[in-house]
């Protein structure tokens, strides 16, 4: 799990905690409310985690596009003076 997915899970957990955005069922006991919110969290996380993972990997890859080329250039510069 990367840092973006972990942050997403933590924020989602906070937002779906009872009493933050909503409380379901409104007049349920403490355990029923907690169980309901746990199920809602699991469903939302299950449906959106792959999308967040792909988004985070896309961000990571965009920043790494030129790294291999820079590394090859550095290796060539190191080898050129000795030739």
Quote the distance from N terminus to C terminus.
45 Å
Radius of gyration: 23 Å
What count of domains describes the coordinates? Answer: 1
Strand tally:
0
Give the proportion of residues in helices. Answer: over 70%
Low-pLDDT parts are none
Q: What structural class should be given to the helix and strand makeup? A: mainly alpha
Mean pLDDT: 85
Order of H and E elements: HHH
In DSSP terms, counting alpha (H) and pi (I) runs of 4 or more, how many helices?
Answer: 3
Strand content bin: under 5%
Outline the structure in words.
The chain is mainly alpha-helical and 83 residues long. It has helices at residues 3-15, 30-64, 67-79. It has one domain (3-79). The model has no long low-confidence stretch (mean pLDDT 85).
Helix and strand arrangement:
Elements: H1 3-15, H2 30-64, H3 67-79
Helix pairs in contact: 1-2
Brief account:
This protein has 83 residues and is mostly helical. Helix content is 73%, strand content 0%.
Key phrases:
83 residues; single chain; mainly alpha; 0% strand; 3 helices
């Amino acid at each position: 799990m990367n840092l973006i997915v972990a942050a997403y899970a933590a924020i989602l957990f906070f937002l779906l905690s009872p009493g933050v955005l909503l409380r379901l069922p409104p007049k349920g006991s403490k355990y029923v409310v907690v169980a309901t919110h746990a199920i809602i969290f699991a469903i939302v996380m299950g449906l959106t985690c792959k999308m967040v993972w792909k988004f985070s990997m896309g961000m990571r890859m965009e920043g790494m596009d030129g790294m291999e080329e820079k590394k090859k250039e550095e290796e060539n510069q190191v080898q050129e003076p000795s030739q």
